[in-house]
Amino acid sequence: MLLREAAPGAIAEVGPARLRRGLLAWYRRHRRDLPWRRSRDPYRIWVSEIMLQQTQVATALPFYQKFIERFPTLAALARARSPEVLSRWAGLGYYRRARNLHEATRIVVREHAGRVPADAQAFGRLPGVGRYTTGAVLSIAFDHSLPVLDGNVARVLSRLLALPASVRDPRGARALWRAAESLVPARGAGEWNQALMELGAQVCLPRAPRCDDCPLRAPCRARAAGRVEAFPPRVARRPTERSRWAMVLVRHGGRLLVVRREGPLLAGLWEPPAVVLEDGASARVALAATLRGLGLRARLEPTGRTVRHAITHRAIETELWRGRAIGPTPRSARLRYVDPARPGVAMTALARKAARADVEE
Ligand code: SF4
Fold it and tell me: Cα of 198 to ligand 1 centre, how many Å?
């Protein structure tokens, strides 16, 4: 069966009305009480949806509460300065999400009189807002009949309909979006979308799904065929790019010298001076050149430690060096000494790992 034919046929067979009744009844009994579920404020729902991308609910929860305490309204976030927004996001990672959200709230203030646009096209044009976020925010806040597709929903749909489609592959993602579209109700879409996500998070788990507790066990085609593990199909991952870095930790009175990153990746975040090592390059020479570029001189010693860090398909292995500063640190808005243990400093995840790995002798 071709993928594009699979979804509608399977849904008709399963019966959308029966599906919805069963799943919604389960959701009303079992949903977790989460702060963003107590609100219909589109700004608060938007913040939660952005935080929950690539982040577990338990991790996001305390950040969400503190973020909303500090920026209770869209206008408050739009007014804030970027370093403060990033520092309130520190620890959640994927800072691009915070930057986009901040920029988007400023656009909403400028172009939409401070009100989150309820129109899918207008909302979808904002930075960091894709089809998933549009569907989630507008269905939950405004009850628009729009589907969502995240990893949890994709897994439930692939199994329920025995659809050999993975969200990681563009063709599979299109088939899954069509399936999600066919199921989303004209009214109550927000509750339906949340129910699907909740089922994926609590019952239809990636490994060892709890089929005996599932409200969809009767119509589930993968379960009927005894092939739950076959769905969604595995897709080969993109090969990992490996790179070797060197980083120098210069301390002063327990604080660590950091430099503000510039350029397209992680701009505005802080980390100790670091350099990417070309094949065969000497870390000592490369680090000394990096420090000179910052107007610094230091005696360099290897620590013998490395830290490993992965960002999507990149694996970075970083040699850690220790630096004893020679002479004063130049005055520069790009350089500062910070206490890396303080949560409010917007440091890269690699910098935090490096600071923890290096213990002063
Ligand atoms: S019956 Fe099992 S595989 Fe099917 S939707 Fe429910 S938990 Fe997932």
Answer: 13
